[in-house]
Every structure is written in C-alpha cells, then in structure tokens.
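Tokens as discussed.
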C-alpha cells in the first residue's frame, strides 16, 4: 500500500507516518521548504497553494491513499489573516481535489474539524454528522468549505473521498496553544522552578471531547481501509469531560502544591457549554473506538514537557 501524507511535518503528521509505517505501508510525506520530517519515509517538499506542483507530485507518486493534513490550523491566526487561511485551507484543498478527481485507484482522506459544527443548537449533543454546520470562526468556515467542495467532487467525478471531522486531539508534541498541552507545560515549568507555583486557566466548566492523537491516526488508517467512500465521519471519544477535570487530573500527577489563577484573557465570551460528537458511524463502519484513556494522554503530555 502506497500512502502519501500531505502536511507531514505538523503535530498529527509524525504520528500518522509512524502508524502507516508500522502497518507496512510505503510512506511518502510532504512538508514545506522550512520544515523537517524525522520519520523514516520518503520526504517531498510541497506547498499546496502551488497547483502545478500538487498535481505533478500526486501524478509522480500515484498513491493508493492520500491523507490531506496540510492546513493553516490556528483559529487565532485565521482571524488575523483570513485570506491566507482561505488560500491554504480552501484553494490548497481544491488543488489536491483537482489532482485526484480522475484517479480511479486513489482514495483521499480529507481531514476537517469538529470546529465545523460551531454554534450548535441547544441539546444537540451528541452531534451526529447530519447536524447542520454553523461555523463560529474563519478557520472552521474554511474547513466546512473544504468539506462541502470535497462532497461535490465525490458526486460530480465519483472521486473516492472520505471526509473527517476530527474533534480535539492531544498528545506529546502538541503546541501549548491547546488546553492539555498548555496545562502540562505550565506544570512542568513550575516543577523546574521556571515560574511561580501558579497555573493560569480559562473557563473550567466548558465540556469538550478529547482523544489521544495515537487513536486519531489509527482512525485515519482504518478509514483508508474500511471507510465508505463519500461519507463524513466524526472522530472523537464520544464522551466530553470538563476542563476542570483535565486540570485536576494534570495537577494530580505533580508533587508540587500549585494554586489555580483564572485568567480573563483565556475566557471566551461565547463559550459553548458542551461539545460532544456521536461516533457511531465510524464505529459501525470500521470498528474504531478510542482506546487510550484521557489520564494516559495527560500523563504522556506532562512527561513530554518535563523532558523538553
Ligand atoms: O503552518 P506550518 O508552517 O506549521 O505548516 C503546516 C502545514 N502547512 C502547509 N503545508 C503545505 N502547504 C501549505 N501552504 C501549508 N501551510 C501550512 O500543514 C503544518 O506543518 C501542517 C499542518 O499541521 P498542524 O498545523 O500541526 O496541524 P495538525 O494538528 O497536525 O492537524 C492536522 C489536520 C489539520 O488539517 C487540522 O486543521 C485538522 O487536522 O484538525
């Protein structure tokens, strides 16, 4: 099985490449000129906004499956630079779709986000894939757009595409812009006496669904093998927990006496109380379900920051 990971230098990319190599795939992966991929695969340089380069590379490799991870994935940067976000997440995705539309033997796994649901209706959790999308930020809107255009390619060209809405995922190596990594980094810095014994937090009552990145990439591989062409799949644990629970768990792994400080800058005006996906579609079609506990993910992320 020949697999191509587009956007292989990001947080998820390294884990996905490892997963595919472990399952005997011949793996190609792309990164930008200034990035590096440390895994044992064939690395190609690719900017997905370069239409001709995208089609030349996909034509040259002729992969059985493409995992499209490349994105401008920061919500805050999407507010500051919506043009760039749309250029990468929408035009870049169209460049990939154009390159695969006539390939009969290539499956494309198009990675979107649970953020696409946005401002959800009251009592709509767990969110089914049929729930209307109502994105609340530019990043989410571009991902919803990527998905809508992908769906058009499945209908118009019968292209073999699977669309994914991945909910929060975490693990060692994730940027500390994300909550689990943020808490773990602060605790590790306190343990190393690099900051006072105070952890700064935002809204602790919000409930969100978190999955270990190793489980997420296993879901992507299983979708390449068993997913149904043209379908959209939620990927998540299917069980939201409060941010308070994450904080308490992370703190319980430390010997230090740490006080909790609410930071108003970390509070969002319109925090939705609970966001939780229904994951029965992916379970029904592939048998996938999250296996790694939240506690393990938090522990591994804390150990990562202790060693970095
Ligand atoms: O922004 P950078 O320099 O970190 O590079 C990111 C890369 N990327 C691009 N690749 C090719 N052509 C471009 N024009 C371009 N712009 C950005 O895609 C980064 O190396 C990779 C995406 O990785 P992360 O930002 O770490 O996202 P993560 O957590 O691996 O998520 C994978 C996918 C994304 O589509 C998310 O939107 C979705 O899962 O949730």
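Sequence:
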């Amino acid at each position: 099985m020949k697999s191509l990971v587009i956007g292989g230098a990001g947080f998820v990319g390294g884990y996905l490449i490892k997963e595919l190599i472990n399952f005997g795939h011949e793996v190609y992966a792309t990164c930008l000129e200034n990035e590096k991929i440390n895994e044992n695969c064939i690395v190609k340089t690719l900017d997905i906004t370069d239409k001709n380069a995208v089609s030349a590379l996909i034509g040259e490799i002729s992969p059985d499956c493409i995992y499209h991870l490349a994105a401008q994935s920061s919500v805050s940067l999407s507010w500051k630079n919506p043009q760039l976000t749309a250029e990468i997440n929408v035009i870049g995705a169209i460049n990939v779709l154009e390159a695969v539309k006539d390939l009969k033997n290539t499956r494309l796994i198009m990675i979107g986000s649970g953020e696409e649901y946005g401002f959800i209706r009251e009592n709509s959790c767990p969110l089914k894939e049929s729930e209307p999308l109502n994105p609340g930020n530019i990043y989410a809107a571009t991902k919803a757009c990527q998905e809508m255009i992908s769906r058009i390619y499945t209908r118009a060209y019968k292209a073999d595409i699977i669309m994914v809405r991945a909910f929060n995922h975490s693990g060692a190596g994730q940027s500390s812009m994300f909550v689990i990594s943020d808490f773990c980094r602060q605790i590790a810095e306190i343990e190393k006496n690099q900051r006072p014994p105070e952890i700064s937090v935002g809204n602790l009552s919000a409930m969100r669904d978190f999955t270990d990145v190793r489980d997420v990439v296993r879901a992507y591989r299983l979708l390449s093998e068993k997913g149904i062409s043209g379908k959209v799949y939620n990927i998540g644990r299917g069980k939201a927990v409060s941010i308070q629970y994450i904080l308490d768990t992370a703190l319980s792994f430390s010997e230090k006496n740490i006080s909790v400080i609410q930071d108003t800058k970390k509070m969002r005006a319109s925090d939705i109380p609970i966001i939780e996906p229904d994951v029965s579609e992916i379970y029904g079609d592939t048998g996938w379900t999250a296996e790694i506990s939240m506690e393990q993910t938090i522990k591994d992320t804390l150990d990562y920051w202790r060693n970095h």
